[in-house]
Amino acid sequence: MPKTLTIVNSVYHLLTAVNLRRLSPAGEGADLLVTDATPGLPKLIPRLRETGLFSRVLPVRTGELAQHYPMDREEAVAQCFSQGEALLRWALGEALEPAYSQVYFPNFDWLARLLACRYQCPFLWLEDGFSSYVIDFARPDRAAVNRHPQGARLGEQVQAALLYEPALAMRGDSLPNRPLPKLSPGDGELLALLNFIFQYRRPPWLPPFLFLEQSFRAEGIPGNDLELMRLCQRAVGPGNFGVKPHPRNGDDLPQRLGLSRRVELRVPWELFLLNEGPGRCCLVTVCSNGALSGRLCLGLDGNTVLLYKLYTGKVLWKENHTLARFLEAYRRQFAGRNTYVPQTSYQAASILKFLGGQYGG
User: Given this model, what pLDDT does residue 250 score?
Assistant: First the structure.
């Protein structure tokens, strides 16, 4: 029986992949590809291999492909596909199986597209956070790569999008949306497995209010997220506020600007919640997937302040309006009683003071 193949580009993908693998039929083989898209992710490979969950766990070099072959440039796209098999072998460094029963992938990147040119099997799209709910990545007018005959193959072979809350999907494509099994806070075996893979240690210090940073600087998106951090710090006091840095930013800028002392939390936020529960600190963010996933993929409902209505940048350049509709639908249908979406800076400060026990503005 052919194996399955799964690609992970982030810790969020890896959490999903591990849970899916645990729930897969007995005797089904599976290979796992761990890319270098997220700093530090390949360092988890030795412990992933030690678990024995997957038949093989292989590192993949994808960062250089994205840099050398921009998907919005027709010449670069044609050049990449003209040497696609050679580039795929270079990125993999090790031979894969001649056939797979299906491929799980989280992003419409070069790795997934080149694999779709090699393997004529079903592809299943794994949730990558809110973008999987709002962006039709295969739309021809979205990027030059989708208009190339080989670039279109991935979209043609995708059979479904696997999402933690399929009812929230509003991409506008014709793909079926199917439910992913959620990570259960009561599953001790899953928790032990994930804690081993990520070497979980309880953080020595976390502030009562924790701001989840997003990768805006890494992606060149201008906005006022640093100003929003200052607003929050003033509202609750410097000793009560901290920032969890995003790994792709890699600059610890909030700490250097005096907006936060060092927050030693280098594991996925979802894993922290599985270990500590939602009550240890109040989450503040523009619209980080981590702030939504506690509710969407774990079913937990902790105090959360979403500042997306105060953010001046475009989180998604082409689908920002759809993202706003998604966040509003999330707030209305799934957020629970402990999620706050302030309309003004004054309202944000008042909510933070209320949650911090100051009761008022």
Answer: 78
